[in-house]
Amino acid sequence: MSSAIAALFRDAESLEKTEGAASAAALYKRWIALNPDDPQLAAAHFNMAVVAQRSGDAFAAINALRDALRIDPEFHPSYINLGRALEDLGQTGAAVSQWLALVNRLPALNGPALRHKVMALHQLGRVLEFNHADAPAEDALRQAIDLSPGQSQAIQHWIALRQRQCKWPVVQGWDGVEARQLLAHVSPLSAAVMFDDPVFQLARNASYARQLIARPAHVRDHAARRVERPKRLRIGYVSSDLREHAVGFGLCEVMELHDRGRFDIHAYYCGIPRDDGTRERIRSAVDHWTDITGLSDDAAAARIAADGIDILVDVNGYTRDARTAVFARRPAPIAANWFGFPGTMGTPYHHYVIADPHVVPEGHERLFTERVLRLPCYQPNDRKRVIAPEPPQRNAEGLPEKGFVFCCLNGAQKLTPQLFGAWMKILATTEGSVLWLLDAGPETNQRLRLLAAAAGVAPERICFAPKRPNPQHLARYALADLFLDTFPYGAHTTASDAMSMGTPVLTLEGQGFAARVCAGLVKNAGLPDLVCTNLDDYVARAIAIAAVPSAAAELRRRLRAGRDHCVLFDVPLLVKSLEGLYDRMWDEFRTGDLPVPDLTNLPVYEEVGLGLVEGREGESIAADLYAAALESWAAHEPLPEDGRLRPVAPSHRDGRAAA
Fold first, then answer.
1. Which of 332, 334, 338, 333 is nearest to 374 (CA)?
2. Domain's final residue, options 180, 209, 244
3. DSSP per-residue letters across 369-436
């Protein structure tokens, strides 16, 4: 780099700090005009684009990047930034063209070229995935993983894309990339879909938090706030889903029913910038609404701390647009995990998880780093949901006029080969029946129909429900006779939606949180006889219900009869119980009994778990397998006791029990 361009970069950086990005951009503009023959001219244009973007002048940035590429087509970072700038303006097609141009231009495998190619492929995959071009996105991410196998984000999105397309087995290695390498980076949500294994999920979630969230430089000390309960506890809900989303639908009435004499309710929104009726209803219901989407983690945490929040509730967990790093900064003395994510967070800064006796029964507390507190039913619902007045006709939804309709309107990512095979057995035995699934796109729909044909079921018996506005979507549940739940990640809001409309849900109860939610909902709706304990029982029960014309009608009658007084839809009971838990949290904080999350041995649990889950997608992994594996581990490397799984140490080591 020439001394002249180096001096320009230093001067521009200093000017931006003192006078702002616009002044730095003006400096670059003058220098470029006076130095048209400088060999580093492309770099000057590139840096001018960077500061122009920071000053808010996206069009100047785009022009500068195009100038950089005209001057030097081999200046690879310009393709990356130009594509991103175009994407930010909604020009996704033009953005993809830029990244493809770079991918095709980079045959060399030197370090910088490799890094830039991987970055371009990752950007391609991300945007294609967002725009539902799943197969090309999967291909782009696989190429990125091939070049750099340790990319957590690329692997997580690649796995999620394969789940969404029902490409089974989801995780399989290829030359140079082993399946275990891929599983070591699986996201918590994908892991919950693939395995009913709460031990692995506990360990993996903790590992994910360590990988994802950098340790903040400073955290707040709230010891001085250990005082008597204030007249109004300040409760802060943090979520990207306080909008037209399953979480938003569920929380509306909760926000409206909070006791404003005892609680001051704050909502911190971190989702997409889109107004809708649900978002407006929540915004109107809470005492304070703050959009933290554009704030840095430090700034968002500072805002929450300035608001004096007593209890901060994470209603995202490990889902899209979550702000877990804000919780890491401990902006409130108490942090709770509720409703947005079905499992433990595995962090040192989430103190409580709010569950119920079904999703976390007695004895399962050891599978959570948080202290488990329980509501009668952990899932909130909204009794004021808008429903289309007239249900659609079967032919309008692509269903046959006659015959038993099994449905599962969960997302396709929750399907597994074992479950789909069970569904095919049900269809093969129930003459004239159809299976009604949520539309997953032409390629995935065709894949599922081909799998049905391979199982001896006519492919036209797999019907697909197109996307509908929520009022119409709810109304069409009346067309289904029986909802067949997925496993191991069962229905959550889809189950309560179905039952609120009178459609019974048949479910399979597993070990982990995500595999137990639906069973709890079904029991709380008054249909415990629809909870199965194994796949054979599930198949037999579905066939038996379809075989007797009055069976489904009787289940529907029971649902409707209990609709107004069952625990599942008793929102006032939930809110009163939730507020009681908030009081308990404050009392425990005040008396010095705030829980300290237990992260003991979790890296070892993850290492052992990777060996147990590989090649076992869709299965339940028994805890005694961990006990045996840890006993073998402890024979070579002593482990601290942690109260979870306790293999006995070999007798030659003083007889002490090891975790």
1. 338
2. 180
3. SSEEEE-SSS----TT----SSPPPGGGGT--SSS-EEEE-S-GGG--HHHHHHHHHHHHHSTT-EEE
Residue 388 lies in a domain: no
Residues 163/413, Cβ–Cβ less than 8 Å:
yes
Q: How confident is the model over 261-310, as pLDDT tens digits?
A: 999 999 999 999 989 999 999 999 999 999 999 899 999 999 999 999 99
Contact present, 379 and 519 (Cβ < 8 Å): no
- Residues recorded for the chain: 659
Asked if residue 42 lies in contact with residue 79, where contact means CB atoms within 8 angstroms, the answer is no
Instruction: Please state whether beta strands 531-532 and 505-508 pair in parallel, antiparallel, or not at all (unpaired).
Output: parallel
Residues 236 and 351 in one domain: yes
Question: CA–CA separation, 251 vs 288, rounded Å?
Answer: 15
> Max Cα separation, the chain?
87
For residues 566 and 524, the answer to whether their CB atoms sit within 8 Å is yes
Q: Cα–Cα distances in Å, from 648 out to 200, 645, 659?
A: 20, 10, 8
Average pLDDT over residues 548-559: 95
In a domain, 386, yes or no: no
Question: For residues 1 and 507, what is the distance between their CA atoms, to the nearest angstrom?
Answer: 65
Q: 646: pLDDT confidence band, cut at 50, 70 and 90? A: low
**Global confidence as pTM:** 0.85
Q: What is the mean pLDDT of the chain?
A: 93
> Can you tell me the distance from the alpha carbon of 457 to that of 444, in angstroms, rounded to the nearest whole number?
17
The answer to whether the Cα torsion of 49, 52, 56, 62 is positive or negative is negative
Residue 389 lies in a domain: no
* Predicted local distance difference test score (pLDDT) of residue 638: 86
Give the phi and the psi of residue 26 in degrees, each rounded to 5: -65, -35
Q: Give the DSSP letter of residue 224.
A: G
Q: What angle do CA 210, 214, 218 make, to 5 degrees?
A: 125
Domain count for the chain, please give it. Answer: 4
Q: Whole-angstrom Cα distance, residue 138 to residue 182?
A: 14
Q: Structure tokens of 319?
A: 């889902």
For residue 627, being part of any structural domain is answered with yes
Burial environment of residue 467 by CB neighbours within 10 A (0 to 12, 13 to 18, 19 or more)? exposed
Query: Are 450 and 437 in a shared domain?
Result: yes
Which whole-number Å values give the CA distances from 628 to 189, 633, 646, 651, in the listed order? 27, 9, 9, 16
Please list, residue by residue across 210-221, b when 16 or more beta carbons sit within 10 angstroms of its beta carbon and e when fewer do: bebbeebeeeee
Q: Are 330 and 267 within one domain?
A: yes
Tokens of 656: 């002490």
Quickly count: other Cβ atoms within 10 Å of residue 581's Cβ. 17
Domain assignment of residue 205, given as a range: 181-217+599-659
Strands 405-408, 482-484: pairing is: parallel
Is the same domain home to 171 and 192?
no
288-291 vs 263-269, strand pairing mode: parallel
The enclosing domain of 244 has a CATH number of 3.40.50.11380
